[in-house]
Amino acid sequence: MTTATPSLPQARRFTLPRLGGIWSAIRRHPSGAIGLFGVTFFLLMAFVGPLIIPEPKVNVSARSQPPSAAFILGTDNQGKDIASQIVHGARPVITVALLTGILTTIVAITLGALAAFLGGLFDRVVNSAANFVLTIPYLVAMTVLASFIRLNSPITQALILTLWSWPVLMRTVRAQVLSLREREYVEAAVALNLGTPHIIFREILPNMASYIAISMILAMTSAIYAQIALITLGLVPLSDLNWGKMIFSARTTGAIYIADTVWFILAPVLAIALFQWSLVTLARSIEDVFNPRLRSGA
Amino acid sequence: MTNSTPILALEGVHKHFKAGRNTIRVLQDVSLSVTQGEIVCLVGESGCGKTTTGKIIAGLSSPTMGKVFFEGQDVRHLSGEAFNAYRRAVQIVHQDPYASLNPTQTLYRMLSFPLFRHRMVRTQSEARARVLELLQLVDLTPPEDFIDKFPHQLSGGQRQRVSIARALTVNPRLIVADEPVSMVDVSIRVSLLNTLSDLQRRLNLTFVFITHDLAVARYFAWEGRIAVMYLGRIVELGSAPEVTAQPQHPYTRALITSLPEPDPQLTRNKQRIGLRSEDIPSLLRIPNGCAFHPRCPWHVPTVCDVALPELARTESSSLAACHVTAQTAQHAAALAAQAQESN
Amino acid sequence: MTHQPVLSIQNLHVEYTARRGKVKAVRDVSFDVFPGETVAVIGESGCGKTTLALALVRLLARSAKITGGKVLFQGGKYSAPIDVLRLNRRQLRAFRWRNCAMVFQSALNALNPVLKVSAQVQDTARAHGEHDAKQIEERALWLFQQVRLDPRRVYDAYPHELSGGMRQRVLLALGLLLDPQVVILDEPTTALDVLTQRTIIEVLKRLREEMGFALIFISHDLSMAAELAHRIVTMYAGNIVEIGQVNEVFYQPKHPYTLGLMRAVPNLSGQRTDLISIHGSPPDLIDPPHGCAFAPRCAYVQPICHQQAPPLEMRATDHASACHFWDQLPILREMPALQPKAID
Fold it and tell me: At residue B2, does pLDDT exceed 70?
């Protein structure tokens, strides 16, 4: 691990999991490997899939067909291929989920770590803000917001979702930092006068890495649910094709009541469920990847 | 070996914690001075304030009342480089070898951080050389085998050595060692203690050694002093051989006679002193007068439960805070004789 | 001691399954415990002493397996020896309280925090078929008195109202509720203060005399063993390396590991002697070394030690050791003229 690079001082490098470490963690946790496989599959589908698979087209002669060799998931009431809709409808959902996950994590870690370290007024303000946000039912607030903010860009959507998702993670980060700063090695760092930035970035955060990664993934899962809820309820403009819109259309056209069209609603629901499941499964085995004990293969 | 000004001195130090509406008096009126090169052991049971005293000495906690002097200067008035000098001069070694090292860092990273931070080395190769030297110093040999390891790859005793090496990075003059051997195995304990003694002699280090084990204290501080603490106060202070062979305070005596010894005949025939109560009073309700009086077999009503005994000279050359030893010199002499007998 | 042992451990083997392979935690351990006797099992962490204790009452973790041997118990309602390892679930449950009680090192958290001590006493008794609440209460109060607790106050208290030492004694009393013939203590005083530890020692001394149970205690604390035990069992790397009368083992150890331990512990009275530690660390129990497991750390090692494991054999009266060169070890102290008190 320490073949010293002359240009970059060693002491300034972050401890990042090595690829080999990830590989051995995966080998030990087949379920994690399945999760990783699932997540990779969906990411490829969302970002590479649309380049390969043609866009769904209206086809009046093939309306509401059950799955067949030509249409593996059948067609909807306009004769559009459902499988192709799943592929093309993935990107908006996953983009917003990723953005929200990243934003939530950044906001929550910054505020949580600062609140724990600074304490006093800052801590109180952040906590009250979090409590305030948590008391607002988000669907109601979204409904109101949607009426005067245009929610069509993924960034706006992610920002709005982050507004509601940071408090929970912030509070757990704050609690973690509070407990980690009591550790004896942190006390030793204080005695050695290594400085607060060192203590936060070298002593505390690396010990939270797995926790942060897991939280980010879980923030993504809730972002997906929130997003789908918004779309399904028709609170977001239905311009783009996405999984939420598929559910919305399927519901409004009564697809659920006809045996032949049930795939129209089942397919996006299954896609969401599978993606979520892959994320959660990956999250559960991620601990190992960051744990130096397991990483070094001892 | 002895300087005129002590390297570190506590004067009338109190430490109180607030717990809801209650005040917990963890330390009361503790005064202690430590000279360069000396070993002082703080001994007592859990809750006696020994760890808090150690943290105050190391500057990791500040007293509610009272003063801490570093080389004659009040540490509250130290700032800038003077404060940094104090910080570096006093280092701490913790008890738990599993909690005191950051699990995400290799030994090299752990030990090189302070070296870079305090500009004691400039390049990676200098740092590596110095880290190897430090590992060698704490008997982690050959150091090349250890430098790139993570803490989890080491045994408890080896981790404790890393902890010591980390404290040594900044060339400290005083080390507060908080129960450094209580969590390592018997067979390794001695070699750790011997390493510490060795370092103390070679580097002329000063040690404040915190332990609950009087036998360990006697072994380590044979040429130094022992301070026995009870419910936040020092109740006895004297040279290690004297405190263990001729305890002046009844609490010290109770501790010494209660401890089993690794010799079947000796330990079974040891004279015990019976206590009046088994229960340690809560720090929230520290008894009036001498805090030990509800348990003390020598308790004198209307004296011990009213007046606070001061730490004073006794028949031996130790100091003890006890009305009985202070009042009746004969009594004390008799006790000393008795203690000799039990040897 | 011509009578039957209350517990006879014969060729016991225990293995743990770990990622890297099988950890042979207890290897071919045999010894007898007689009624009313106190046996101390000493050794460093990882020597197998706690695994041994857990195996005796079959409370091992799921990853551990007893791979051979017998644990024969005779006493209470069993007039002929039974093998504890062959008891069915129901019999085992009864055995664990009625015949053999165990108090663990981690026992401080073993009391249910939301139940009063009285409820836990009654529940325990009822679970083992004792239904006379009044009689149980009387017995519990008597036991609390014996362990030097204020009986009424403790009986009506919640666990959090008691200090660590008090809880330890409550657990001891709870273990003795059904008058077992064997009591196993795992590091009974490790987390306790000196004066509380003394109380527990005194309580144990008195109770074993009054109730006549055999006591097996697991400890790394040689001083505790010196004070309480009639016999000492030294374990190293899953094996018994020495077993004998307390005076024999302490004053004239016949295994270099026991000798090493004796020399590594500081004393409080008498001369301050320079202590010597045992260098190195215990071996890997997944792949134990060939020959004597202690050889790599031994100061008296000879070539044969690396090739041939020494058998555990009698070297003096009631004193066995597993060392090729047992007769070349120094005598630590002359045996005291005073013989230890005979076992009650």
Answer: no
**C-beta atoms of B117 and A191 within 8 A:** no
Q: CB-CB: which of B46, B262, B279 is closest to C265?
A: B262
Whether residues A77 and A102 fall in one domain: no
Please tell me the predicted confidence (pLDDT) of residue A53: 76
SS3 at position A212 = helix
Best mutation target among B95, B96, B186, B213 (most C Cβ atoms within 10 Å) is B186
Assigned domain for A146 exists:
yes
Q: Percent of chain B at pLDDT above 90? A: 64
pTM of the model: 0.81
- Residues A129 and A175 reside in one and the same domain: yes
| pLDDT computed for residue C342 by the predictor | 45
Which amino acid, one-letter code, is at C7? L
Which residues are CB-neighbours of A200 under 8 A, at least 6 positions away?
A113, A117, A177
C-beta separation of B283 from B24 below 8 A: yes
Q: Which of residues 166-225 of A touch B (CB under 8 A)?
A: 183-185, 187-195, 198, 202-203, 206-207, 209
Q: Closest chain B residue to C247 measured between Cα atoms?
A: B264
Are residues A2 and B106, on separate chains, in Cβ contact within 8 Å? yes
Q: Which of C261, C269, C333 sits opposite B261 (nearest CB)?
A: C269
Q: Which domains, and CATH codes, for chain B?
A: 8-230 (3.40.50.300), 246-341 (no CATH)
Lowest mean pLDDT of A65-79, B172-186, C15-29, C228-242, name the range: A65-79
Q: How confident is the model at residue A288 (pLDDT cuts 50, 70, 90)?
A: low
Based on the domain organization, do A165 and A51 belong to the same domain? Answer: no
* Residue A197 belongs to a domain: no
Its domain, for residue A73, covers: 18-57+69-89+241-298
Residue A214 falls inside a structural domain: yes
Peptide bond into B142 cis (omega under 30): yes
Q: What is the residue type of A290?
A: F
pLDDT bracket for residue B169 (50, 70, 90): very high
What band does A164 get if pLDDT is binned at 50, 70 and 90?
confident
Token readout for C53 is: 């204790």
Angle at the Cα of A273 (from A271 to A276), degrees rounded to 5?
A: 105
How would you class C164 by CB atoms within 10 Å of its CB: exposed for 0-12, middle for 13-18, buried for 19 or more?
middle
Whole-angstrom distance, CA of residue A248 vs CA of residue C26: 64
**Predicted confidence (pLDDT) per residue in C235-274, tens digit:** 999 999 999 999 999 999 999 999 999 989 998 888 888 8
Identify whether residues A213 and A283 lie together within a single domain.
no
Last residue of a domain, one of A239, A254, A278: A239
Domain match, A116 and A215 both? yes
B99 CB neighbours in chain A (<8 A) are 183-185
Query: Which domains are present in chain C?
Result: 7-229 (3.40.50.300), 235-328 (no CATH)
Q: Which chains, if any, share at least 3 CB pairs under 8 A with chain C?
A: B
Share of chain B above pLDDT 70, in %: 94
Together in a domain, A123 and A49: no
Residue C165 with chain B: CB contacts under 8 Å: 278
| Same domain, yes or no: A232 and A248 | no
The number of distinct structural domains making up chain A is 2
Claim to verify: residue A132 and residue A77 sit in the same structural domain: no
Structure tokens at C22: 């099988």
CB-CB under 8 Å, B60 with A191: yes
Looking at the domain assignment, is residue A190 inside a domain?
no
Q: According to the model, what pLDDT value does residue A85 have? A: 77
As a whole number, mean pLDDT of residues C27-40 equals 94
Which residue type is seen at C317?
A: T
Distance CA C71, CA B80 (A): 68
With CB atoms and an 8 Å threshold, state whether B92 touches A198. no
Structure tokens at C129: 């078929």
DSSP H or E segment with residue B267: helix B264-268
